[in-house]
Amino acid sequence: MEDNEISYSKEEEQKSLLPFPEEEEKEDKAGQFSNVEEHWEEYKLEEELAGAGKMGKKDASEEIRGKSNITSGAVGKRKVCLLKNISGRLESLEHYLGDINNIQAMKYRDRICILTLQKNLKELNDVAKEKQLVVRKARDKLSTCQLRIKTLAKQLECVDIEIEKEEEAGNVAALSRLQAMHRRLCTELEKEKDFELKIALTLKENMLEMWQIETEQGKYETLHEQLKKDEEELEMQYQEQAEVRIWKEKIAALQAEENQWSREKKEAAAQKEYEERRKKMFEDAKRNHEKAVCFLRKSMARIHEKNAKEEVETQEHMERRIQAVLSLKTSITSNREKLQTLQVWNKAMAFEAKQQEMKMREAILAEGGNVAKEIFLHKRLLEHEKEKQAFREQQKSRKIEIVSQILQEKASLHKQRKSQSRTKAIKGGGKLEDSLLWRMKTWQYIEKTCKHSAGAISQVLPQKSWCSPSACSSAGERTASVGEIAEKIPHEVLCESGGDKEERDKTLVEPEFPGLWSQECDLHKISREETDPKQLATRVEKKEIFEKKTEEFKPGILHKQILSGRECKGRTFYSKPSCIHFKDFDVGQVYKKKIVLINASCGVNFCRLVGISEWLQDFISIHFDPPGKMSAGMSCEIVVTFKPMINETLEGEVMFMAQTGSFSVPLKCTAKRCILALDKEIIDFGSHVVGETISRTINLTNSGALGTRFKVQTSAGDSSSCRATAKSSPGRMVTQHLSDYITEKKISNSPVTSVVEKEEQICPDHSEELTYCVTQMEKQRTEMSLSSSPTEQLGQDVLNSRSDLDTDNACNLVELSLEETPVEIMLGKVTEGEVGPFSSVKLQIIFVPAIPGDVRAEFVITFDNSDCKPLCFSAIGVSIDVPVWVRNPNIDLKICMYDRLYQDCIVIQSRAKTTLRLKFEVCKELSKHMELLPKTGYIQAQSSFSVQLQFLPRHSLPEDAGSYFNEETRILEVPVTILIVDKAKKVNVTVHAIVTTSDLEISPAQINFGYCTIYEAVQANVMLTNKSILPQEFGFVGLPEFVEIQPSDGLGILLPLESLRLDIIFKANKAKEYSFELTCKSEINRQFKLSCKAVGVHPPLELSHSLVQFAATALNGVSTATLYVMNSHVSVNHFTHAVPRIGNGEVAPVGPTSFEFCVPEDCPVTITPSVGTVLPGKKSLIQVSFRPTLSDQLIREEAVRRLCRAAATGAEIQKRKKDEKREGKKLSISITRQQSSRQLVRDGGSKYLTSLHSSEQPKSEELKPDSDAYMAAQAFLVRNFSGRFEKYIIPCFVASGHIDEKKGSQNLSCSPYNTLYLELHCPAVAPSVVVTSDNGKTTVNFGDVAVGHRMLKQITIQNISPEKLELGFSVLNPNGPFLLVRRVGMLEPGESKTLIISFCPNENKWFFEMLDIRTAKTNLTLSMTGHGVMPSIVCSVGEVLSMGYVIAREKVTSTFKIQNTSTLTLRYSIQLDSLSSTRDKDQQRLPSFITSSLQRTEFVGTQNYNGLSVFSIFPTEGEILAGKSQDFSVTFSPDHESLYYSDRLKVVLFGKKVAHVIHLKGAARDHPMFVEGGIPLDVPIESLAGTLPMSSQGALKGEVQEPVKSILLILEYIEGESSPVPAMTELKVGAIQTAQFASKNVEFSFDGLSLLQQKGFAIDFVKGTIKPGQVKCISVSWVPPADFRADDPLLETALLTLKGDIKESYQILFMAKVVSAYTPS
């Protein structure tokens, strides 16, 4: 409180100074400058009046600052000093108050004086309060001491009694113990009595001082009232100034309003002008736009017309190209057919040659000749003949080529001559004028060519560049086909293509412009420049340099990639996609694909395009801009354009060159093709009666992009279907003879045999293999029929051999004529058609059994597309012969229920030609359940008859059916017999059914809901089970209004054998007993009952909400909801409204009703208040808070896991280190056995210790919540928290009556049936933002911080959500110590940012505040704590530290101690005003001797001439721990004589607060004597003092000098006291102790004392001797003589002479005056 009052007075002082402008100070200063002389005259008086007040102010402020350690003696001293200072200040205040009425406005100086006086009075009040506190404490101590004395006296009496008892008993041991206790109590009693006397004495002294202070306060009451009046007047002045300011502000506001109005007027005019100008511009733009639109339409029309023309030309061009490509395609197709024919012919010729070779071999062997030699010569002869024939063919083709070229040239020459004018005749004699010479040269060239050697045979005519390599077979075939192709090319095409070949082929046509090539080259006419040796040498050198550079460049292309000293291998570039694939292209279209090349090498690389495969150059074009150098991972793009001209599949590659080598990207162009397949290969019709018609389908699917026509037909060699007898197997085929033929002919090497072998490898199935071979043979037969005669002969041989084999194996086959065998398996309507791309066709196969037995048929599907191979499939079936047959012999009734009627119709067919009588029978076991109507009947010839089947299963079916019914599978198979009475034949029909029940089971069959309040719903669960294997619909019907069934309101479908859980929800609408039944009906109208009972309860209280759904709350966050507990029970009249009761019981009493919420221990929910009482008709507010947290056990388990993991890792690292050390020791020099055994023992021990360390796991109970492991585990779990949802039901117990605060709810009895329930849905989610710094702690503890100082802390937060977060922050207390220095606005996913929070306490106490970091979904709460500590120190030195007198140019040292009394480590620094950085600026102000003593702030006095500081302190900065102290040493080292050495020392804490100020003073003399005391009359400023030159001082040395200094002694005699006391004062004379003047004493003496004694002055020591280091105090007293006038002060002088090393004189002025005792002093 006292500190607050002091600070409040300081604030009032500052407020009083703030409203005044600085102009008043300037006026005062100006007045001071103008009245300098007046100030000089009043200087001494002002110094006398204000000096004491100033010192008093400093003393009082110092005492208040250190009030905590004030003793009673210090308080007394301060009181005396304060009273003196206040008396001096009151005199000056009276002077100012006397003139206050004459001055209209107080000056600045007057206001300062008033405020200073007010402050001194305040300090006096504070001293009085302190003294009262000291008195109160002393009284408390005295009372405590007295109480202690009484206690000790009682104990002493008890001990005396016990001593007497023990003496009587004679117990020596106890007696000695009691005597010792007696002595101790006596000693303590004496000490307490002494202490009581001391306390009483101290209390009396303090009481006396307190009474004196109260007396002094009473003296100044009138002055205090006058001071209040002055303050009121001052306040009036403030109000007047405020009114003037307000008036000026109003004038300024009116002027500003007028300026605003004029400005708005100008803006309106400018806006209007702008609108008119804008309107005009808009109209101009509109007109220009209309003109531009007109011109644009015309331009667009011209452009459209131009584009239409270009499009027409483009279409025409494309049509021409397409026609050319189509013609080329037809020619290629025809050539391919011829090539195939030629291949067959070649194979036949090879086969024939092989046979001839075999015959020749046999003939030679028969003759006995050399077979190898003869065959070799025969082959050489054949080869020679082939070469001759090939050479003739080549000559013939070359002749034809030359002739066609000549004809082309002639035609073009004729065309040129027509186009050229006669004026452009050919000149020059060297040029031929007629084409006859060219023809002669041509024929000569032909003759020379025909005479070439046989080596020219290998030359092949140049192929077309568009030919695909895949289409080429052998060189001979190509050579043979070229001539035929050339013959079939139309003459028109040759003429058209001739113009295109003129530029690239050498022709004999004369050019339009003659060139150098037409002139004959003359070697004798070579220029000299070409034959110059110098130029030839230069050319040779250039050529060599070029070759060298080329050789250097070639190996420099490839560089090995080396990374970290290793060569990187693998592909350097990857393409995306890896293969350029153009699928299903159309000829004439243009396709483009973009690929990306990625640099997968280890460093910088580059690539360039080398080219593409040669056969793709006419179709593929590549656009590639070389990217230059590419870093690793960079990519570039390539555009590949494909223009197909032929419909063939092309394959190649695009080649690139990189710095590390070449690479390529595969390229593939796939034409449209057919991909055909069947969904099955065998169709099994099963067994059927003769006369039925059965149909099956098979799917033909085309998964390619090209459609084709197909044709389905029976397999070759089998006109219809093949049938085997009863003895043969069903799978045996008529076509077996083919397989026999093939196996016998495998030895031969003929082409036909090889073809058959290949087909055998392709077809794994034997039947398909045979069929496919037959088709291949037929196809070869048709092909060979078109070829030459040797091929026909070969085909006849093959057919003859096959017929021979057929006749040889005829004994193993059944001969059946094809005409007599009917076709039983045939094709449907669709036998041929079109299969489109990516489509399928269904083919129908019909089976009409005609003859009993097994039937098999083979079919083949052929296609128009020659690339598609034929597909084969087969169909099998069995025919049965009965005169009566049933279309469906297996009647399936599916699933049937008991007690339900099922009917079906059986249709009977007759193939007999007469009427038959039929009888229908069911087995006896099932006669009660199944019936056929009618039982007998007649069927007409070749007609049908219907029989009705009725099936009504009873519950006795499992017992009656016997073996026909399987109880596990519940399958029923009943044989039904159709008898033909006359022929004794029967037909069996089987009836299949699965019989199941229709029961629905409800478990349990009865439900008791118990007691249920009307404010809640009670749920019971039942299981509804479908016992049937059929789905059944169900529904609860006729439900009462207080029952609800979920899900789907009790309606639904139950799947077979399914159990459904149903929730029966009962909600009582009033208090009574309930008993009812629920009915469940099935779809067949069966009913199932469920009995229910319940008791309805109406509790006395109700909740406004029984369900609270909290929002998703983050971990450690809080969600709050509010609800009410209401008491609506105000009357017991149950006729007017419902009253609280249990069932039909008694009504609850009207009155206060209490409640209590019971929250489980582990529930993260808080209910406030949890206990309360509600009056009738009132309600109570309840607040429910949900704070999700992680369980302590979960955190501890995670912490233990992490510690175990870390321990295991550490143990593994230690083991590795030990293994490494062990290996190092093994590799070192050999060790003795003893050393090795010791080492093994040591290793074993370390292993054992490691195993023990790993086996010891920390216990979760030992972990502390503030440990690092615990905090790290908590942060990890928070980050990985996936969220949870918890549901809590909180019971609220209700009882009638008030809750006693002392006993609680124990005095009330509550019924459990009146209990209310509050359901809470609590979803917890992971926080969006978490704290990552300081192990995830959300509490920021700043610890101890000095008051007024600031500490910063950084908190790092991270966004762990996948969304971008915008953060908001709660508002902190603006007057509090916490401040959010740097906030965060946005957080990206996974981003971390730092918050900066500062703590700056302003009081000595603990602070706590919460900071909420808000996001869109969750909040993060930071708890901030800090302790503000007031730094306090105690200094062993007061305000002034005097160093005394020192000989100039010598040093003296003094020490003082500062103790830290606070609980905070203090950082200090020591500052001197003489070393202040602002001292130079302060010296520019007015000198201190001009200003009054009140305004002087200069504490720095005389300084050294050498520039060094007079005072030095060590240490200057550092830290003082809490409760510790620090010693400081002050050194005083003057370099010349002066009495006014001074400085100010400041103890600054934390660089801000000045904790203590010490005024350093010292004096220096050149001689070892000094005089001290009185009031000095010289100038305290050294620069104003007159100093003698050094020479004059030396001349006067040893002589009597003039007085160097005058000293004023003032003596005040108090008149009017009962016992008059003379006025007293002191004067001190001393000698300085120094080594320089160690042996000299100082003598002093007064002269001229006779006059002083007459005037009443008395001096106790007139003369004397002083030793070095001593100070003599001379007392001066004065008693006014009888003739003294009180109104005239007395002034006398005397001379004081000092003798030491020199002689000095001082003039002492004695001023005496009489002061009344009744005037304030």
Structural class: alpha+beta
Oligomer: single chain
Helix content: 25-40%
Major beta sheet summary:
6 strands, mixed
Q: How many beta-strand runs? A: 79
Low-confidence stretches: 1-84, 89-105, 422-434, 450-531, 549-557, 717-820, 1229-1255, 1584-1602
Rg for CA atoms: 66 Å
Report the β-strand fraction as a percent range.
25-35%
Overall pLDDT confidence:
76
Give the number of helices. 25
What does this molecule look like?
- A hairpin with a 2-residue loop joins strand 9 and strand 10 (661-671).
- The longest helix has 147 residues, at 221-367.
- Helix 5 (72-98) packs antiparallel against helix 6 (108-169).
- Helices cover 36% and strands 30% of the residues.
- The chain has 1721 residues and is an alpha+beta fold.
- Residues 1-84, 89-105, 422-434, 450-531, 549-557, 717-820, 1229-1255 and 1584-1602 have low confidence and may be disordered.
